Amino acid sequence: MQFETILQDNDGPVATITMNRPDALNALNGQVFRDLTDCLLGIAKDREIRVVVIKGAGDRAFVAGADIKEMAASEGAAPTGSERSYFGMHVYDQIRHMPQPVIASINGYALGGGMLLAMACDVRVAADSATFGYPEIKLGIFPGTGGTILLDRLIGPANARSICLTGELFDAARAYQLGLITHLVARDELAGETARLAALMAGYSPVALRETKNALNASMEMDFEAAREAEIAAHARCFASNDRVEGMKAFVEKRSPRFRGD
């Protein structure tokens, strides 16, 4: 399927989504969100795809934020702001709840909605040349598509408040220190490390990956007791799978497992 603002490339069990507006530093606009929604829906249904990678076209940006020209044209109408928030929030939630693990491969700017896009992914790999931040406060707004909440959950309230309220940008080393990114590599090692992680996870049981994500999402979104019940249910589904039988049989027989995703 062809999209206007993104590219999709499938290589065996790994699907790579490239944010493809390099002249605009891959900025997010309404069409990008629509394309992402359709692309992710298709990938989620594809049993052959076991891992998803999201990256930016060019060498200057992962995603440099929202398309300010598009937002400026809305003249600040409250309903438009609410609709935009819900629309963007839906896409980020869609990424977090994909059955496949999603890797953000970050080079250059990951600002505003771009940083939020990365945070919605399960694993975040960044080049040491990447730059992060929520500069929205300088425009008279804030990251209102779930960006404040998710940042607070990931790195804690003190650092989240500082990032949101100062609007200051920070480098990849600081992002790694905060736990905002999970893997930090030299710029020329970004593609290789991304491919290594994708291949690693693609070799695991799709059932185990999906149910692990379900348990982790429950932990972030529910209270303790509800999350624990969700974890029990996810583990039960995992334990009842053919992949679990195959994985344990392969371990006993000292061979590599052949997971089918059922």
Strand content: 15-25%
- CATH A-level architecture of the largest domain: Alpha-Beta Complex
Going across the biggest sheet, name each strand in turn: 1-2-3-5-7-10
Query: Which spans have pLDDT < 50 for at least 5 consecutive residues?
Result: none
Shape by Cα distribution: globular
**CATH class division of the largest domain:** Alpha Beta
**Secondary-structure class:** alpha/beta
* Rg: 19 Å
Mean pLDDT: 93
User: What is the number of domains?
Assistant: 2
Report how far apart the termini are.
26 Å
The proportion of residues forming helix, as a percent range, comes to: 40-55%
Give me the strand/helix succession: EEHEEHHEEHEEHHEHEHHHH
Structure description:
With 262 residues, the chain is α/β, with parallel strands linked by helices. It is built from 11 helices and 10 strands. It folds into 2 domains: 197 residues, Alpha-Beta Complex (2-enoyl-CoA Hydratase, Chain A, domain 1), CATH 3.90.226; 47 residues, Lyase 2-enoyl-coa Hydratase, Chain  A, domain 2 (Orthogonal Bundle), CATH 1.10.12. The strands form 2 sheets. Strands 1-2-3-5-7-10 form a 6-stranded mixed beta sheet, sandwiched between helices. A 4-stranded mixed beta sheet has the order 4-6-8-9. A hairpin with a 2-residue loop joins strand 1 and strand 2. It is globular. The two termini are 26 Å apart. The mean pLDDT is 93.
